[in-house]
Amino acid sequence: MPHALFKAVRTSNWSDDHVGLHGVSVDEVREAVLERPYWSAPGQEGTTLLYGLTFAGRHLLVVVIPEGEEASVVAARDMKEAWDDSYTGEAPPPWDIGRPQPALVRLADAGRFAGRVLDAGCGTGEHVLLAASRGADATGIDLAPTAIAHARAKAAERGLNARFEIADALDLPRQARTADIVIDSGVFHVFDDEDRAKYVAGLAAVLRPGGTCYLMCFSDRQPGDWGPRRFRAEELRAEFSDGWSVESLTADTFDLNLIHGVTQAQAWLAVIVRR
After folding, report:
1. What is the pLDDT of residues 138-197, one digit of tens each?
2. Which Gene3D superfamilies match (predicted)?
3. Helices 126-133 and 102-109 sit at what angle, rounded to 10 degrees?
4. What Cα–Cα distance (Å) separates residue 201 from each residue in 55, 197, 274?
5. Which pLDDT value is given to residue 102?
């Protein structure tokens, strides 16, 4: 969506209680709505769901009532609290394209998804179902109950044996499972620095020595500042420098639902082995 969708934010209904409850300030809302919005979708009862970044890198979901060029704020939450709302609007979120990413299909066709496969942030389950269709013992986790419900329905419709659980990718050690393969399609790049370190440590806890993480994230080659953080190749290698081996880092693309006039974004496809 264009940055000029709204020119002002009205917070007359905002309260100190809301700020205290959700930890989102008025200044952060203004940053996400006016400066760095990256996606919107129709909400319920005449509202608009607007997704944006703060200058500090927080992903916010802001529910607004459009009033011309003003956005009257109804609610705002960190996306970690509000992830399920991404799947309850009238339009699917940009990443929920209804099919696996082509880069991951190529890996599956090459026989790379075998054994115990975990998708750490599976959404509506396309990559878990891709692995299951190739004979893997496949499990997907996601914070969003609506996404997990859709994933389970897809598995039943397609006659595939796959498990889907509501769980937090930041709590991977609590999953009490060991994986041979971890799939990350667009999860790593949504975290801030602190949570990203926690996430990488969690990957190390669940992935057996010699196991492989196939990771796709936004690349610094992608123009603009909408959406998740872009990573340089050297940054990715640094994140996985302790106890990992980055076997390959290849320029690739994400397929997306239409956003900012594009249906693809520049990405890295990383093949990372746990030592």
Report:
1. 999 999 999 999 999 999 999 999 999 999 999 998 877 899 999 999 999 988 888 899
2. Vaccinia Virus protein VP39
3. 20
4. 26, 6, 11
5. 98
Task: Report how far residue 253's alpha carbon sits from residue 112's, in angstroms, rounded to the nearest whole number.
Answer: 19
Q: What values do phi and psi take at 6, rounded to 5?
A: -125, 145
Between CA 48 and CA 40 the distance in angstroms is 7
For residue 1, CA distances in Å to 75, 90, 133, 151, 165 come to 20, 16, 36, 28, 32
Terminal-residue alpha carbon distance, the chain: 42
CA distance 98 to 124: 8
* Predicted structure pTM score: 0.83
Q: Hey, what's the torsion of the CAs at 184, 268, 115, 190, to 10 degrees? A: -10
Question: What's the CA angle centered on 198, arms 233 and 97, to 5 degrees?
Answer: 65
The pLDDT tens digits for 214-273 are 999 999 999 987 788 899 999 999 999 999 999 999 999 999 999 888 999 999 999 999
Query: Tokens 């608009």, residue?
Result: 48
| Pairing of the two strands 244-259 and 59-67 | unpaired
Cβ–Cβ < 8 Å for 221, 251: yes
Compute the 3-state secondary structure of the chain and give helix, strand, coil in percent, each to the nearest 5: 35, 35, 30
Joined together, the tokens standing for residue 191 give 């975290």
Closest among 207, 187, 183, 199 to 100, alpha carbons compared: 183
